[in-house]
Amino acid sequence: MIIRKFQERDLKRVHEIEEMSFETSYGVDMILKLFKIGTGFLVSEDNNGYVTGYVIFWIKEENQGHIISIAVDKNFRNIGIGTQLLYRALFILRSCGLEQVNLEVNANHINVVEFYKNIGFVIDRKVPHYYENDEPAFVMYYKFKDNLNS
Length: 150
Fold this sequence. Notes:
- This protein has a single domain (about 1-145), classed as Gcn5-related N-acetyltransferase (GNAT) (Aminopeptidase, 3-Layer(aba) Sandwich).
- The protein is about 30% helix and about 35% strand.
- The protein has helices at about 10-20, 30-35, 80-95, 110-120; strands at about 1-5, 40-45, 50-60, 65-70, 100-105, 120-125, 135-145.
- The chain has a seven-stranded mixed beta sheet with strand order 1-2-3-4-5-7-6.
- Strand 4 (about 65-70), helix 3 and strand 5 (about 100-105) form a beta-alpha-beta unit.
- It is globular and about 40 Å long.
């Protein structure tokens, strides 16, 4: 597996992964807009060049980053791809001198919440009715330490 910067040729595949991963997904136009406004945008690909996952992130405030979206193709989950994508995003954000990274996650998706906790994210608060389908979200944060292993 390699992790590299997103290229426009990846757009269709990233959108496919987005749609299979989220009940309410970003459209092709929004994904392209996120790329064009200069977000951090990485994809993972297998040895054959097949895109298996992605992460989109940015610097939201002067000292804080934000994970906008991360997803892995359902056929490639639970083998460490999401972990590697997230670690790479955290490494890049840390190298920008940030102190903290935030994200929102569906509070009802326990496995995803546990994934973030295992990386070191902490639940800050619960936001009711956050998503279009009225489901709640957890706002989670990751504070950088001197010993980030990424």
